[in-house]
Design brief:
The complex is a heterodimer of chains A (422) and B (194). Chain A is of the alpha/beta class. Helices cover 31% and strands 18% of the residues of chain A. Chain A is globular. Chain B is built from 8 helices and 8 strands. The chains are: A alpha/beta (422), B alpha/beta (194).
């Protein structure tokens, strides 16, 4: 069995499972945020009317809640939304509620790894499509709708059809200035928006072995943009060290069998990779940066679960150090722990010296919620994950998706720029 | 959840691929305190201009499609965020069937939690149905779509079909078996994971 089959077999108490088997899995961790949490409250209300008991959760210690989409509250409705969420977590005894403005908080997917909330081998479900991110720790991590989350909260289990796995073997070492974001954009460009639909996307090969955990998180994060059920990387010592340094003890290890089977194997040579952008209005609409349209950018956005981990900020700082931005540039570290580390290591000073603005951790403008959304006809280069029409603001605004290095280089020139050409 | 009833309706053709959930219900309508129906927010940015007046060139604003219960659209419908509001909005607006060549995973799953029928059909058949100007009949029991000239069979998982026909979502179904589950759990040797 490959790693996903092993995780799902163990979670369902079976000796083995195969793709297309339907299994009933024990869930290890559940996440909700300030959009899916209220969605779950609505489902609970509906169940209650049907006479179903929603008085207590299966295990509130396995549930955690993040405030990330509509914080800081921009208007009264958002503020009220957070109040309702807090009432919910208090009522059900959910202690892991990461509140805006109270110690560690940040984007839900970022907290999953920064706070070592998910372990290798876990079945982890979240009320958000980018839950796939955390598969980089060697977990089976996928997003669910509100009804499914409500079900898991009450029962601790969920049905899955075991997905078949497509394997991306990436060989060699990435050239300087080429990041994991470029790799995943290239893959999405090749297989398309639904190229991973209903399947697992697994990443391996010597490039992945050498890659940091944070880069692997970027890869798995955007498996969602290929429609994948989940993304995964087999855990190794790097994952153990990463989680241990964040307070985890006895980090378990799980790997696929040596005769693991995959529905398809795609092979890539890292040395051939280049900085890439996805043009409006789809993540699979890619081009290499040196052939990107010569558009006048209005803004550079370095944020989100995809592109504002510590390593992403470090990469942006490398480019921005000693330079000045020519367009509005907003940098939003994805969690307070990252913000703090960026402060301690001088990255914030580099950003401010370059003329950029540093904002609080939030999903913010990535989903067009607030904190710097785009006006009609504005064009943005962004380290985020989606560029559908209106994603970051006005329906007639445009977003180019890129790595943090490309977003930083483009901030300096005001045009879509390969960092090697600065 | 209401049981699914057979539908006879003209079709609303939305000839677009990769329609994501933020087009179906834009993010600004996702906050809890808006309790009123989500139907009025459906395809909001396509339906309304900046002053919230209907855009005349958008298909839902065309009077000939008023009252339509069947949406026909392109590949990968419902991609993007996992928000279940997308299904709620389509239903609240009045759709009970969505036909497309393919659907995004989470959206597809969410449909069955709420009684919306997603039908996946070959691209050519979808194109044919988009041209249909007289009402078509969707018979879930028989798994057939009838037009004036054709009978088109469609596939659906047996279990999912049962869910829709009986109006029992997964939770309601499972709770019907609560006695058996409790008994099984008492005798179960399933290990807790890790």
């Amino acid at each position: 069995m490959n790693i996903v089959e092993k995780i799902l077999a163990r979670a369902s108490g079976k000796s083995s499972v195969s793709p297309d088997d339907v299994i009933f899995a024990n869930v290890d961790k559940v996440m909700m945020h300030d959009v899916s949490g209220p969605g779950v409250i609505k489902v609970f209300d509906k169940l209650k009317k049907q006479g179903i008991s929603v008085d207590k959760l299966w295990d509130p210690t396995k549930v955690w809640v993040a405030e990330d989409h509509f914080v800081p509250s921009a208007e009264k409705i958002s503020a009220e939304n957070i109040v309702q969420l807090s009432k919910f977590t208090k009522k059900y005894g959910i202690e892991k509620h990461f509140k805006y403005g109270m110690g560690q908080y940040g984007i839900c997917h970022t907290l999953s790894h920064e706070e070592a909330l998910v372990m290798p081998g876990d079945v982890y479900v979240g009320g958000d499509s980018h839950t796939n991110t955390t598969g980089a720790l060697g977990a089976f991590a996928c997003g669910l709708g509100h009804t499914d989350i409500a079900y898991v909260l009450l029962n601790g289990r969920i049905w899955f059809k075991v997905p078949e796995t497509i394997y991306f073997k990436i060989n060699g070492k990435l050239p300087d200035h080429v990041m994991a974001k470029d790799v995943i954009l290239k893959i999405i460009g090749d297989i398309g928006n639904d190229g991973g639909a209903y399947r697992t996307m697994q990443f391996g090969g010597s490039c992945i072995d050498e890659m940091s955990v944070e880069s692997r998180l970027t890869l798995c994060n955007m498996t969602t943009e290929a429609g994948a059920k989940n993304g995964i990387v087999e855990p190794d010592q790097k994952v153990v060290d990463y989680l241990s340094s964040r307070g985890a003890t006895n980090v378990p290890m799980i790997k696929g069998d040596t005769d693991s089977e995959y529905a398809k194997i795609f092979e890539y040579e890292s040395s051939e990779m280049e900085p890439i952008v996805a043009k409006p209005f789809s993540p699979d609409n890619i081009t290499i940066v040196r052939e990107a349209p010569n558009v006048e950018l209005d803004k550079s956005y370095i944020g989100s679960c995809t592109g504002a981990k510590y390593e992403d900020l470090e990469a942006a700082a490398k480019i921005l150090k000693g330079r000045k931005v020519k367009i509005r540039t907003e940098i939003l570290p994805a969690a307070i722990s990252i913000y703090q580390k960026a402060m301690e290591n001088g990255l914030l000073k580099i950003f401010l010296d370059a003329g950029a603005t540093v904002g609080p951790p939030t999903c913010g403008a990535c989903c067009g919620a607030h904190m710097g959304v785009l006006a009609k006809d504005e064009i943005c280069i962004s380290t985020t994950n989606r560029n559908f029409p209106g994603r970051m603001g006005h329906i007639e605004s445009q977003t180019y998706l890129s790595s943090p290095m490309v977003a930083a280089a483009s901030a300096v020139t005001g045009k879509i720029t390969d960092p090697r050409d600065l | 959840m209401e049981p699914f009833h057979n539908v006879a309706s003209i079709v609303t053709p939305l000839d677009m691929v990769n329609v994501d959930t933020d087009q179906i219900v834009p993010k600004q309508f996702l906050k809890l305190v808006q309790k009123s129906g989500f139907g009025k927010f459906l395809f909001f940015n396509w339906r309304f201009d900046e002053n919230e007046n209907p855009k005349t060139d958008f298909v839902l604003n065309d009077s000939k499609y008023q009252g339509s219960k069947i949406l026909i659209t392109g590949d990968n419908f419902g991609c993007g965020s996992s928000r279940e509001h997308a299904v709620w909005a389509l239903q609240d607006y009045g759709f009970s069937v969505v036909i497309a060549p393919s659907f995004a995973d989470i959206f597809f799953s969410n449909c069955f939690k709420n009684g919306l029928l997603p039908i996946s059909l070959d691209q050519k058949i979808v194109e044919f149905l988009q041209q249909e100007t007289t009402p078509i009949h969707v018979d879930l029991e028989k798994q057939i779509i009838k037009t004036n000239s054709k009978e088109i069979p469609f596939e659906i998982n047996f279990h999912k079909k049962k869910i829709l026909l009986e109006g029992l979502d997964d939770i309601a179904q499972t709770f019907q078996l609560e006695d058996k589950i409790t008994e099984f759990e008492k005798n179960s040797t399933i290990p807790s994971v890790l």
